[in-house]
Each structure stands twice: as C-alpha cells, then as structure tokens.
C-alpha cells in the first residue's frame, strides 16, 4: 500500500472480520485437550496511522456503550466462553 | 438526602456519564490534533452542556463532588447518603 491512510470505511485490508486465527503447535504430552485453532482480534485502530479529521461520530449514548466515539474505531467483544456480543445500547446477553 | 432515587436520577446521571465519555474521547483526540477547530468547538460545547447538566443535577440531588467543587444547601448535604459512587 502506498497510501498509509486507509479508505473512509477503514476495513481491515486482509479480511473484513477483525478476528484472525492461528494454529498453535500441539505437543503430544499436553494434559488438556488441545485447542487447535486460536483466535485474536485486530482492532481497526491498528490500520490507522493518524486519525483523519471530521470522522463521523456515534451519539454520546452509543459512544458510552460501545467504548468509542467514532464508528471507524469500533471493535466489538465476543466472549468465546458464552458467545456473548456486546449489543448496541444494551448489556451483554 | 434520604429521599428515594427515581428513574429520573439515573437517567440524568447516565446522561452526565455519556457527556463525560465524549469529553474523554475528544481530549485524547485533541492531544494529537491540536489544530482541529471543529473538534475544539465540539469539546467546548460539550463541556458547557456537561457543566449545565451537572449544575442542574446538583440542584436537585445534592453535590457530586467534595472539597469545594460542588455547592451544598443547609444543612450540609455531603454527609448524607447516597453518594454518587453508591447508586
């Protein structure tokens, strides 16, 4: 990429999802059942070297719930244990 | 204040919390964008709304802060629960 500033959508360049996977080494003596696929989150701010001015904003109520004032930087949290997603305007369910 | 806390109390406290969060975000943003005039205007407007909201809240429900950052009626209100962090 010659332009360090992503487009206005700021979509993750490799995949639309913020979740990526990796495959850890599985040793034969692991006392627990192996987790073959592990995941990690790459939030959108990782692709923004310098925040552009005048980005669209959430309302104050949405911002407080979602943890950011700018939709471009929103990264949701899903609990793997219970599959919960923080929903807009509400607590986790 | 020993009166019951109504839904209005929580609604207005949450509104205050929302504006506080916007101010936190704008503060961090302006640290790196000191020349964004529009953001500074938004910051100042939000700060003013927050001040107004806090003032009205304190008039109705008592002080939010101690040590001279809020006013008190007679008798002294700060010693009366609930404190902001208890609700």
What low-confidence regions of chain A span 5 or more consecutive residues with pLDDT below 50?
1-15, 86-93
User: How big a fraction of the residues of chain A is strand?
Assistant: 5-15%
Structural class call of chain B reads mainly alpha
The percent range for helix content of chain B is: 55-70%
- Note the gap between the termini of chain A: 40 Å
The tally of domains of chain A stands at 1
Structural description of this entry:
The complex is a heterodimer of chains A (93) and B (87). Chain A has 93 residues and is mainly β. Chain A has one domain. Chain A has one helix at residues 60-66; strands spanning 19-22, 38-41, 78-79, 84-85. A two-stranded antiparallel ribbon of chain A has the order 1-2. Chain A has a two-stranded antiparallel sheet with strand order 3-4. Chain B is an all-alpha fold. Chain B has one domain. Helices cover 59% and strands 0% of the residues of chain B. Chain B is elongated, with a radius of gyration of 15 Å. The model of chain B has no long low-confidence stretch (mean pLDDT 92). The chains are: A mainly beta (93), B mainly alpha (87). The interface between A and B is medium-sized, with 11 and 15 residues.
């Amino acid at each position: 990429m010659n332009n360090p500033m992503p487009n206005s959508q700021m979509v993750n360049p490799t995949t639309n999802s913020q979740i990526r996977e990796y495959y850890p080494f599985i040793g034969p003596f692991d006392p627990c059942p192996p987790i073959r696929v592990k995941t990690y989150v790459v939030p959108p701010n990782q692709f923004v070297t310098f925040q552009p001015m005048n980005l669209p904003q959430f309302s104050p109520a949405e911002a407080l719930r979602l943890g950011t004032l700018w939709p471009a930087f929103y990264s949701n949290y899903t609990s793997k244990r219970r599959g919960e997603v923080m929903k807009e305007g509400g607590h986790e369910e | 204040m020993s009166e019951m806390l109504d839904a209005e109390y929580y609604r207005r406290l949450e509104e205050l919390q929302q504006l506080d969060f916007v101010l936190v975000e704008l503060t961090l943003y302006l640290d790196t964008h000191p020349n964004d005039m529009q953001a500074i205007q938004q910051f100042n407007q939000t700060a003013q709304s927050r001040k107004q909201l806090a003032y009205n809240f304190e008039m109705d429900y008592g002080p939010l802060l101690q040590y001279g950052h809020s006013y008190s009626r007679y008798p002294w209100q700060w010693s009366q629960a609930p404190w902001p962090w208890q609700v």
